[in-house]
Design goal:
It is a single chain. By secondary structure, the protein is mainly beta. Among the domains are: 112-205, Immunoglobulins (Immunoglobulin-like, Sandwich), CATH 2.60.40.10; 213-294, Immunoglobulins (Immunoglobulin-like, Sandwich); 300-400, Macroglobulin (MG2) domain (Immunoglobulin-like, Sandwich). It is 10% helix and 40% strand. It has two helices and 24 strands. It has helices spanning 51-71, 76-95, and strands spanning 112-113, 120-121, 125-131, 143-149, 156-162, 168-175, 179-188, 201-205, 213-216, 222-223, 227-233, 239-244, 250-254, 260-266, 270-279, 285-294, 300-305, 309-311, 317-326, 337-342, 350-355, 361-368, 375-385, 389-400. β20 (337-342) and β21 form a beta hairpin.
Amino acid sequence: MAMRRGARPPHVRPRPPSTGRPKPTSIKPRRLTSVRVTPRRHPGRARRLPLPARLLLALAVVVLGGAVLYAATGGLSRAVASLGGTIGAVVDRLTATPTPTGTVAVALDTPLLDAPSEPYTNRETVDLSGTIPTAFVARPDFAIRIYVTLPDASPRLVREIAVGATATFRVTGLELAPGRNDFTATLVGPTGNESDPSPVVTVILDTEPPKVTISSPKNGSVVNRDRVSIEGKTQARSAIVARNEANGATASAMAGTDGAFSLSLPLAPGTNGITVTATDPAGNSASTVLSVRRGSGQLTVALSANQYRFRQAELPAELQIELAVTDPDGRPLAGASVLFTVSIPGITPITSETVTGGDGIARFQTVIPKSAATGTGPIAALVTTDAFGSATDRTAITITK
């Protein structure tokens, strides 16, 4: 290529003459370092608001618009106050610093007390046992509290023990007040929170001996049997023991819920001293002595007929027989077995079995036929009892011409 003067290529235009302006200087671009990994923000770009702030601003604009409309009805001051409160509440929620919550109390299950086999006692202290939920076993930071409630009084704390290594626990030597004592148990946590009380367990301190009253037989009476029936009354559910000192015989019974009792005791001939002892559910005992004399024990029977003489010419005729039975004490004896045997002259003997009624009388009725012969025929009655043995009586009828 041809060069012009001054060694300038022909296609390059000549530089205009200098007018005295300074020579431009070249600036090298800054090298990126490892410290800054993101390009610098453009200095002219506006920084955007955070999302919560933008939501707050939009809410303020909406509420402010409503306030302008509400101002036309005269409620501007109330609306502005409401707006300020709403915005303040939102700001507080957005900017509030979280605070730690308090310790949450553990929900405790209720322990259980074992009911004693007998709530009555004459001891002034009592031992109680019970169980706790297994989740609290071997937790020394938990405790068991025992409360007692007396009639017309509030529950009172009487004992506190630490939870042990098993689910069962035992509290000994709890003092009792006379009468009713209602015990409950609770479980207490390390923060002082306490479970609901357990079901009530009642213990009754009774140190009074029971009263024993004998209603039958009367003291000093005569008993015409080989056994005596003793009836009386004492404290409900008391154990009754009767002992006959004359023969060493004993009998026992249990008083009912109304306190009534009855028992039967063998008698010896002559006078019998009987001691009746009642022991109430608390263990208190009281005795009374009864004296009775055993009588002969003989039954009394009396046989009778409606007619003893019959004329042969007036036959047939009706024959009615009665047997009255009384016990050794002279009282009508009901339920005694009776065997009647009637022998009419010239007729085969007639037999009949029956029992005495409530009035102590047994009855038999038959007809003497016209074919009966003249003469005398015996009538007999045999009485048999379990308590008094047996007895007999006889009579006779006569048939004449």
